[in-house]
Write a structure and sequence with these properties.
328 residues; alpha/beta; Rossmann fold; two-stranded parallel ribbon; 11 helices; 15 strands; 42% helix; globular
Length: 328
């Protein structure tokens, strides 16, 4: 099978591309900068922006399937910036899939598309919320997910996978930020830190997307649906952060903010930060709500429809993370 994978500069999408190659698939990687696949057999890199419709169409030529994960992430940037990459870029993917008669499309989404600020306890994926989000990223991804799921027809099967809090060796988004802030005495926990949250070890996130690709065909159980995937082992925010700090050998001595103060502080920083800095802010209202409320999900439909289950437990993942830090 020949698969176009977009956004392979990231830990997750790069891992997906590598695993597809390892098992014998031919892969076209589309990302803006080289991702280390040069010279690999059965891999062709296309260095382009997902907003470039012609480049996307060229990359999709001869492909049988697409795993689309290229996106603008974080909170820095205007609504227009996020819309152009995440929405218009996805429209380019859908157009290329139609032009090239591609029959399968796996969209890499995010649980934040259905985030409303409330606790989610044993929840299903839920419908993406448009027009209610406090985050340009979440809003643009929700619109993109709806575009993908509504594109399902007799020629194209689609599925949206929402991986929840992916972490592991080499992760700079979650592990990297927590460890850096802890090492510099700037780590904050919202509320008591006892909110239960799901997370996903990187190897499991990779295998889940490939399982979705393999399970997906026109009329399959997962065609046209969205799924949140995780390790199905919810831990408290304190437990997860402490384990990441222990793995890196840095002290876990966070400051505690109430959810109410965290939300208010996040709202203020959201308005002022873009005027002062171009880096990611330490907290936003969205982040405060995510850290201060429970978020764990029912995995039964995922495991049944995709015929997938995580292979690496949370504890095994932290053992691997500890070994990785020790090797560095």
């Amino acid at each position: 099978m020949k698969v176009l994978v977009t956004g392979t500069g990231s830990l997750l999408l790069g891992g997906i591309a590598s695993e597809l190659v390892r098992r014998g698939d031919e892969v076209v990687c589309l990302q803006r900068r080289p991702a280390g696949f040069e010279g690999h057999e059965n891999v062709h890199e296309v260095l382009a922006d997902i907003r470039d419709a012609d480049a996307v169409a060229l990359a999709a030529q001869g492909c049988d399937a697409i795993i689309h994960g290229a996106a603008r992430v974080g909170v820095v940037g205007s609504r227009k910036d996020f819309h152009e990459t995440n929405v218009l870029g996805t429209e380019n993917i859908l157009r290329a899939a139609e032009q090239q008669n591609i029959s399968r499309l796996v969209f890499v989404s995010t649980p934040s598309v259905a985030h409303t600020g409330e606790s989610l306890i044993g929840a299903s994926a839920g419908k993406a919320e448009i027009g209610r989000s406090r985050s340009y990223y979440a809003e643009s991804k929700a619109i993109a997910e709806e575009l993908v799921l509504s594109a399902r027809n007799n020629h194209l099967a689609v599925v949206a996978i929402r991986p929840h809090l992916v972490w592991g060796p080499g992760d700079t988004q979650l592990v990297g930020r927590i460890v850096d802030r802890a090492a510099n005495g700037r780590l904050a926990v919202i509320g008591t830190g006892n909110a239960l949250v799901d997370s996903t070890y990187i190897d499991n996130a990779i295998s889940a997307h490939i399982a979705a690709l393999d399970a997906l065909h026109i009329g399959s159980a997962c065609d046209g649906k969205a799924y949140v995937i995780s390790n199905a082992e919810p831990r408290t925010v304190n437990d997860l952060m402490r384990s990441m700090c222990d793995a890196a050998g840095v002290p876990f001595e966070p400051r505690h903010l109430s959810l109410r103060i965290g939300v208010r502080l996040g709202s203020l920083i959201e308005r002022l930060w873009p005027l002062m800095r171009s880096s990611e802010p330490p907290i936003t209202r969205f982040i405060a709500e995510q850290l201060g409320t429970a978020h764990w999900f029912d995995q039964r439909a995922v495991q049944q429809d995709l015929q997938w289950a995580p292979n690496v437990t949370i504890d095994e993942g932290f053992e691997r993370l500890t070994q990785w830090f020790a090797s560095r």
